Amino acid sequence: MSGERETINLDTLEPQQLAQVKKQLDEELEHLTSSYAQLHGAQNKFKDCLRCVDSRNAATEASSNSVLVPLTNSLYVKGELSSTETVLVDVGTGFLIEKKLKAAQQFYDGKTKELGNNLKELEAIVQRKQTNVRAVEEVLRQKIMAAQAAQSQEN
Asked: What average pLDDT does the segment 91-115 reach?
C-alpha cells in the first residue's frame, strides 16, 4: 500500500456492503486493541526493569551485595552479587548485554518513552477506527430503517 487513504461514500453502499465494511473495521479494531494491550504490557515490563536497576543503584550506594534469586514464581534463595557495577540487559530476542547501571537506566528509560509515544499514536488510530465504525453503524441503521419504512408503505 502506498499509504494513501481511500474515501468511500457510505451513502452509495448497499446494506450488505455496509455490514461487510463494519465487519472489516471491527476486525481491524480488535487487532489494534490487542496490539495496544501488548505494547502496554511491554512498556510495563520495561518500567519494572527500570525500577530494578534503580533499586540496584540505591543498593550499590548502600554497599549491599545481597539479593534474592528467584528459582520459581514463589521460591527465592539468598545470593551475593560478585559485581555491583554492571547488570545484564535483555535487548530483545533473548540477547543479553552487560551494561553499567547508568547505561542500563538510560536504555530502559528510552524504551519506556519510545513505547509511550507508540501507544499515543496507536491510541489515535484506534479512536479514528472507532469513529469510522460508529459512522458505518449510523448509515447502516438509517438504510435499514428506510428499507423497513419503504416495505411498510408497500403493504
From this structure: 93
